What does this fold into?
Amino acid sequence: MTRLTRRAGLAGAAATAALASLRPRAAHAKTKLQVIWMGWPEGQVKPLMDSFRAAAPEVELQVETIPFVQIFQTLEVRLVARTPDPDIFICDSPLTASYAARGHLLDLTPHLDASRFTKSAIEAASWQGKIYSAPFGSSCPVLFYNKKLLREAGIEPPPADVEKRWTWERLVEAARKLSKPEENRWGFSFEQQERPYMLLPLAQSLGGVALSPDGFKATGYIDGPAFLEAYGFMQKLYTEWKVSPQGLFDPNLPVEQFGNGRIAMLVAGTFNEATIKTRYPEIELGVAPYPRFEKGKAVTPTGAWHVGVNPRTRNRKEALALIDHFMSHDLQVLWFELRPYPPVLKSVWEKEAKRFETDMWKIVRYELEHTAVPRPATPGFREYEDILRTALRDITTGADVKATLTAAAQKIDRELEKYKG
Amino acid sequence: MKHGFREPWSIVAWFLAPALLGLALFRLAPIAIALVGGFTGTRLTGETVWVGLRNYRRLVEDPSFWNAVEVTLLFNLIVNPLQIVISFGLALLVLRPTPLVPFFRAAYMAPMTVSLSLTSILWAILLEPTMGPVNGLLRSLGLPPQPFWRGEDQALATLIGVASWKGVGYWMVFLLAGLLLVPKELHEAAMIDGAGAAARFRHVTLPLMRRPLAFVLVADTAANFLLFAPVYLITQGGPAGATALLMFEAYQAAFTYLDKGRALAISSVILFVIGVLALLELRLLRERGG
It folds into this structure.
């Protein structure tokens, strides 16, 4: 960790005072860094922040944590004010382009050594050839299942081998045997029942493309045949086969129901493994890869949380020091221990190889290298995500798939208009 | 003499100043900002530019805007008369000072003390289709469970129900105050003239209730036009746009679509509609003659 500017403390020494008088701010005040962070449990946030506090005692770190359901709105309100606050903010990787296009992210290309990061992480951090957000974690959902429930129903569990991954058709067949809707028992659920992040791969597995290559047109893409087929299939999980509980849009709810043994199989992010094991120790947890369609290919979602610097910050040096600290090998290992997202640093994968020998991490490693498709790169991702999310929500509750997707595509086109030239 | 006249005016001005300042700062200024802002757009880099009627032109061409207009009008057409009738009924019920009346008055007013966001969360849980207690109760009675918030044809009705659960007790208080001001002598005189209960209600109570009714109607309409929390917290305008009230559209324009001009244009439309409706309602309930 390199030393930060030596301000503070030395008031009285004439030389320093003279130097300090040239600076815009009082020399004796601690430099304040305002940070907006995700509302993860305190135990997963504080150790990271404390680690920086210890490394840079001359900086006063003020951290605001915002719950997931509010974080994007909150950031929007704070950023459009175009003030120096916050200095640092957590940035969902697919929003990198959105923030960058609107001048809310400092270009980190000269500052980050891209070769330290995995290729997919750098891709997710880039917009028009420059790196605008510092990759902090990646992601990869897997299929968790409750071994006991499957055994009791006489179902052979899904193999962990990526080459032999289950098809959605096979999964539904098993899920129907495991479901008793009238007793609130369900064969399967997505952790994120309405989020494009988790559901785009369904359509992509059938060859669907999420957005036009120039990033401005959804009509002809999300209302194309692959999407209609994939989301028609998804709808039947809720309405026809009744293997998934409707309306658990808060991602915590399906995980909780899985933990309580009410849901037998769950497609969910890797970080849930730790949560499930600590909160529901009695569960016999099995892990398999994200399924594909019988006639389709394997596709998985990826991308996750990055860290961005407000270009209007008055404390650029300190803000960049925080970025350096957070991208250091040691802190990334600590972060992995706190909340196991797939790491973005090559060195973590290499030096911590032992941790990645489990079934789950073998799957994740394969997916990140072979099947992961990032969300579409468009400055209008925020609008895209929200409109498609609402459409998916409606589809799970039985709305006409074609009409819903067509309307959503038109709405997205309308909103992306503003980013053209 | 002149001096004597001037002084009271300056005193009056001083006393009025804080209120007028507050009115200008917190009411008129935001309205002006919204009206002017409806004609502007924001560049990607943050500069505000004049775009003339573009925001309005886009609204007119936008089917989701018209859906929101339709939903908002339908919602208000039902919820306002419904709330007034129920709260008037409740006020009449708790008017006479019988022994249990204080209990009922308090019970009807109780939902008023719960914040709207808490109300929303409470009813989201109670009416949750899969795990909610209301459907549990229906099932145990052998009745089919209902989709409530998640049914395209039930969501708006559910919203009306919840808004009324919270609203009627509040409006009841104003109407009750109005009823208590109706002079007893008028009722007694009418009784002596042989008027029955229905006739007295129609010819004595109702005419004297015009003013409180006008206030409640206008205030209730404005409150319901601005309803936002349950839509934001529970339905997000869905399913399939069934609860997409204009306020939610304005919110989405500002915070999801990052389009301040559109949001302000929608706000201006809401303001205009409320203004027109308030005028109509006041006219409808204006006291006629002497």
Observations:
- The longest helix of chain B spans residues 2-37.
